Amino acid sequence: MSDTSSSALPRQIADAYVDALIELDPITGTYLGVPESSRRLPDLSPAGQDASADLIRATLLKLDDAERLPGADSDEERRCARLLRERLTAELAVHEAEEGLRTVSNLHSPAHSLVQVFTLTPTATEEDWAAVLERLGAVPAAVEGYRASLGLGLERKLYAGPRATATFIGQLTEWSGEGGSAAFFADLVAPAPEALRPRLTEAARLATESLAALRDWVRDVYAPAIEGAPDTVGRERYARWSRYYNGTDLDLDEAYAYGWSEYHRLLAEMKAEAAKILPGASPWEALAHLDVHGKHIEGVDEVREWLQGLMDEAIEKLDGTHFDLAERVRKVESHIAPPGGAAAPYYTGPSEDFSRPGRTWLPTMGETRFPVYDLVSTWYHEGVPGHHLQIAQWTHVADSLSRYQASVGMVSANAEGWALYAERLMDELGFLSDAERRLGYLDAQMMRACRVIVDIGMHLELEIPADSPFHPGERWTPALAQEFFGNHSGRPADFVESELTRYLSMPGQAIGYKLGERAWLLGRENARAAHGEAFDLKAWHMAALSQGSLGLDDLVDELSRL
């Protein structure tokens, strides 16, 4: 255990917090690769949420003392202390506003965590499967705790959005095996050792029944009770969540204007690139043409292998030229996401000892044909040089940071900003040399610019500018946001719908991609200006990736000093 005495410095306080958090939240422990966590699940009830908040308050008091000690003003301690205080303060604000009593989403909720943690729980040995058996046995109580939190939210008139709730009901149906595919937990235990399989099968049945019961309650009790509630959150709640995801108190009106400026810049670039593919066509007509006639991968296994090859190729070409990668950072795996989740690809980081490598996950949404233009820059984002290089490097240098900075202290906008910077870097380095891949990259960039516009616009009900080609002068609604997003995306309608539901249920998260990228680019330009011709991009990359997570309020300053 980390030192919690009165002489503990901020990094020790931060690591003691991680130890205590893992006790309360074994899901976090599994993401970090803690073997003891594999048998348990967290208390998702209101009492469990209160216990987490009590831990935050106690840690902040210890941090007050730690920051007064000799040595607390070193760069290492100062960065850790600032991150810890900012993160815990933002998390506490979310708790005290009782946001945890209405956490319903199509991407990130306690139920999603309960399902996804089993995709990372070890299953290599019979002992591992015994731990899975115990964890499966804890699913019904965890699900009931989550239901109790939502029930208390109903009593206090703290409602989730109806749109996210309707989507969530469908996901619970899918996980329960009533949506046309096998039940998630039954599928999970199918390859278990014969000696444990009967008990695992029974535990999986009970876990599945708990998800189905939650679905029935959400459908029959929760959804009717929140009918007519707004899907948007308003400026006060949005500012709170924006702080949580971005690590700074943003000027939301300035950020909205920045989103529009990026929209206009990218639209001009997309038109030029589209002309190379289909002269006279709009960017989205060119993308629709590529859906049918462009390069593509046939087959689910084949696309997984192709994505693995894309990441392996990026590592070989970037290591030693633009990055210096430790051997254990060089390993990343491509996986197909389990059915029932959102449409967006995602990444899971390595365990602390790298026994479980970093992994990228592709939701197929039932498709078996995959256009290349839609995958390349996305896997530069999710894998290499995006999320994997940053998060695996944090894990690699955790001993010189703190465990907190390298793991649970992650600021979403820092990580998503780096991943979007990584896409741009690959364009700058010439990896998107053909028109298909580059138009796909610009389409992904446009999606992130549109996220800033519609995420802020619809939650704050802002006015659409007069120079917009879309409904100028009107105020944003979710319906207008979906139409706008669909008009400016090469992705299918179900993806667009999933994305809008995500923005409505995770306010302030989606804007961190472009705003985080802006911070990374500004920090790089400031460092380049300071060093002049002596600026070394590879050295800057490795120093930037080795300083752990930072909120956007600190990121530009720290990057500029490197």
Helix content: 55-70%
Mean pLDDT figure: 95
How many β strands by DSSP? 5
Sketch the topology as an H/E string, one letter per element.
Answer: HHHHHHHHHHHHHEHEEEEHHHHHHHHH
**CA-CA gap between termini:** 32 Å
Beta-strand content: under 5%
Biggest beta sheet attributes: 3 strands, mixed
Summarize the structure in words.
This protein is mainly alpha-helical and 562 residues long. Helices cover 61% and strands 3% of the residues. The protein has two domains: 10-231, no CATH class; 242-512, no CATH class. A three-stranded mixed β-sheet has the order 2-4-3. The chain has a two-stranded antiparallel ribbon with strand order 1-5. α15 (376-382) crosses α17 and α18 runs antiparallel to α19 (478-487). The longest helix has 30 residues, at 197-226. The model has no long low-confidence stretch (mean pLDDT 95).
Short description:
The chain has helices at residues 10-24, 26-32, 46-66, 75-96, 110-116, 126-137, 139-155, 162-175, 184-189, 197-226, 234-246, 252-277, 283-293, 300-318, 376-382, 387-396, 412-428, 435-460, 478-487, 493-505, 512-531, 537-545, 552-561, and strands spanning 296-298, 332-336, 346-348, 358-362, 369-371. With 562 residues, it is mainly α.
